[in-house]
Give the backbone structure.
Amino acid sequence: MTVDRDDRDAELLRLAARLAVRGHGSVEPNPMVGCVVLDPSGRVVGLGHHRRIGGAHAEIEALAMAGERARGGSLLVTLEPCNHHGRTGPCSEAIIEAGVERVVYGQEDPHPKACGGAARLREAGIEVLERSDLPEVRRLNRAFVHRVRTGRPWVVAKWAQTLDGKITVAAGDGRWISSGPSRRMVHRERGCCDAILTGIGTVLADDPLLNVRGVPARRTPLRVVVDPRLQIPLDARLVATAREQPLLVACDSESLEGDADLAAQLETAGVALVGLPATSGELPLRDLLERLSSEFGVSRVLVEAGAGILGRLFRDGLVDEAWVFVAPRVVGSDTGLAAVAGATQGGLGHSLALELESIRRRGSDLILGYGVPSGGAGARP
């Protein structure tokens, strides 16, 4: 039985994508990349993935495993091989030197400094094919591509709710809605993202830490509080731990100037303060995200906030992905709040249509993963 070459390429690119995910949390803001090398007979002789910033790229790692067996063979990689000198040399030249005769890549590199590898390989007489039709490959680096093209980080909105859509049940009820396995999943993602964003309402109500607990952390995320009127208490746990884990408080520029004593005390505690011009008491979240990207190197933001912040992010087209943890509970009363408020004018005719991308189970919970077309814009039925 013969295997169609296109099918074989797709199978190997999916394998490369599974390898690439192993770098999540260690390579960002660089892309996650996986690579497979075949000898001339089509046998897999090299596997690799980008493990950490500044480390060997996936192609280099896979070629090192393959050695001379790569000569005359094929290389399949999730992202177009780079063609520039950065922390490492150009992968395009390494592929040429290894004697590879055929290269298949899953996505064009959007970065203006790194792109051009495909053209360089073709110049060297290597057969090059782009396979951009595999969703699991293209999903790998949505955050990377998004940041290069928009200047903003990838925003993941996360919340837990009951079956009847409540994210809180009653005032003073501190019980978790989601299960222990679900919370561990969230902590693992916290330990892989660049920033966790919340609002001052959540800080005043819950006094959260927003740190990583109970699981290994690949990075220490920046904690970001949207606090227009600079209301964060000096004894908040976020402030108390600001020297252990970075904390940034975004507030209205006038509030920052008007309460210089509080600002000085917060800065003494290790808090970074960012002033932005507020309009009707609201900070420009788009501007905040752009500053997180340009000034703090943030490529992926996990939002753990209340209905107001989530609503504004959806309304302004700033949410790129949503994780909804649904617990098998029914409140069955008028108490509690919905997850998102003020995102649309109301009614199905103005609702945002999300795309279901994954369904997972953790403990007794169902985790629904959604993509937000065009960051929430143009996604209306």
